[in-house]
Amino acid sequence: MQSSVIGRMFRKFWVLMVALAIVGLGAAALVSAIMTPVYTSETKLFVSVQTTAAATPSDLVQGNNFAAQKTAAYLEIVPSERVLGPVIDQLGLDETTAELAQRVSATTEPQSVVITIAANADTATAAADLAEAVSDTFSEVVTNELELPVGGGISPVRIEVLESATLAEEPSSPNLLLNLALGGFIGLVAGVVAALVLVLLDKRVRGAREAEQISGRAVLGGLQADRISSRGQLVVYENPVGASAEAYRALRTNLEFVARHGNKKVFLVTSSREGEGKTTTAANLALTMARNGSRVVVVDADLRSPGIAARLGVPSARGLSEVLAGALDAGDALLRSPHDQVTVLPAGERPDNPAELLGSERMSTLIAALAAAFDVVIIDSPAALPVTDAAVLSGQVDGTIVVAAAGRVKQSELASTLEVLRNIQAPVAGVVVTMLPRRGPDSQVYGAATAVRSDETVATPHG
């Protein structure tokens, strides 16, 4: 199992695991509280063979071996009706010999001549009385009945009490500490299993590793969410020395490396679904590239829900829609952003036929003209799966940047987006993973880009 899966399981579901462990402790405590206490008392008996004063050492050895053999056989006699029947009568017990046998046990060690008889009862006194009664009756049955010579005389077996039954100070059951440990352990195991199942059933993209596996290439960059970008603001402008701004500079470097291999200048930024941070990524990427000396133009091609022009501080009353409709010259539609000399082509009025406009010959001509006039063209488009706008535009650019929000987009959705682009043979520049966690294995980006850890509060970026 990958360390990222284990780390995610403990990071995300540690509360569940602790809660189930506490539930296990509580259940164990409750069961222990309602259980009837059981007290155990023991007696120890010594089994030997009668000897005479004239016995030789060899006779003693043989007698000891005989006693050891008998001791093992006597264990079956203790729970028998012949022993327990008189005990029931003696103590006035209201139970059968089979039921009483469940509360009495007899044990011995290999080659030992000592028998330990244990008796359980609901009080310490009852347990001691039962152990003593069983011990006395057993000794009587063995010496005066079972081992009594047929012709009369003295029994060759002698049974003596080594230890009499004593009153137990504490009940032997329930064992509160053992029950608590067992209950807590079972609860914790249940929590771990439940957390693991939930993690394995979660098919969302959690980090760069899943994005790389789906796309088949190293990600372009990894961006951790912070307070500024979560509000749709420009993190590279508001906090240019912060960790998030550094992550965008790493993304810029990786994209410039991709652009140099093939003289690529026009990039489309899209995502699988709304709310993954594509517009925020496009705006901050444009500012980062402009600060590096590139002449950058940003085109708001999200004609259904425009927003990047407002992010960059320019009005969106007229723009791309009017240019594509032939009602406005492209030069008159371009506006200069107050942030780092980025040029913006706003979306303009929302048209009735955005996909048709974006796929028109005028759009292709406009992209070519912008590519000739600027070093970098960044086009912000709608999400790829709900509508066809991004697919229409992807065939007219040098590369498509697919933004994938960790913890939000499903792996199947990202795979579907990339499959749509492959089916129309659209060039894919790479995947940028946003909303990465600040800690744990999922916060890291391997391969082409390096995710930078942010000390700012994690929140959800706007689309």
Automatic annotation (TrEMBL):
Q: What class of enzyme is it?
A: transferase
Q: Which residues form the signal peptide?
A: none
Q: Which InterPro entries match?
A: AAA_dom, Bact_polysacc_biosynth/exp, LPS_length_determ_N, P-loop_NTPase, Wzc-like_C
Its GO CC terms? plasma membrane
Residue spans crossing the bilayer: 176-201
One GO MF term, please? protein tyrosine kinase activity
Membrane topology is:
Multi-pass membrane protein
Keyword Membrane present in the record's keywords: the answer is: yes
Q: Which reaction does it catalyse?
A: L-tyrosyl-[protein] + ATP = O-phospho-L-tyrosyl-[protein] + ADP + H(+)
Protein name, as recorded: non-specific protein-tyrosine kinase
> Which lineage?
Bacteria, Bacillati, Actinomycetota, Actinomycetes, Micrococcales
